[in-house]
TrEMBL record:
High-level lineage: Archaea, Methanobacteriati, Methanobacteriota, Methanomada group, Methanobacteria
Transmembrane region(s): 6-23, 44-64, 70-88, 100-119
UniProt keyword list: Membrane, Transmembrane, Transmembrane helix
Name recorded for this polypeptide: Uncharacterized protein
Length: 143
């Protein structure tokens, strides 16, 4: 594992955050009603996992040449972007947000986790893999 800044990690985080920033402006109808029911413990695990993924993506770097190994998580994030395009073109209901994409359940949550697990594997970044597993625990509970 390499310690230092990772531009690939930065690119992946930008691809993750852009749709989420837009989502704040285009939340599903009645989202507030559903968000009040979220389990606080699961939400805490999700937030801790997300922060650790950001840190370990950026600073416990991805130090390798661009290869097929990087292509896999990149393609997964491209699918994530297409999922969000589908959502933003929809009526923006909770059903639209939680609908499958290419038979992938909860794609807004599943795809980024898969991308960062593969990124961690490709870069031998055990800290990124571990933090992504923390993040993934929340998704496993909901699937």
């Amino acid at each position: 594992m390499y310690f230092g800044f990772s531009f690939i990690g930065l690119l992946f985080l930008i691809m993750l955050f852009i749709p989420n920033v837009l989502w704040n402006k285009f939340q599903p109808t009645d989202y507030e009603k559903y968000s009040k029911r979220e389990n606080i413990i699961l939400l805490a695990f999700e937030r801790v996992g997300q922060v650790l993924v950001c840190i370990f993506s950026l600073f416990c770097g991805v130090n390798f040449n661009l290869s097929i190994c990087v292509a896999i998580p990149f393609i997964i994030l491209i699918l994530y972007e297409f999922y969000w395009i589908k959502y933003f073109k929809s009526n923006k209901t909770m059903g639209d947000m939680y609908s499958d994409f290419l038979k992938i359940p909860l794609p807004g949550a599943t795809l980024p986790v898969l991308a960062f697990v593969f990124l961690g594997i490709c870069s031998d970044n055990i800290l990124l893999i571990f933090s992504t597993i923390i993040w993934e625990l929340v998704i496993l509970v909901f699937i």
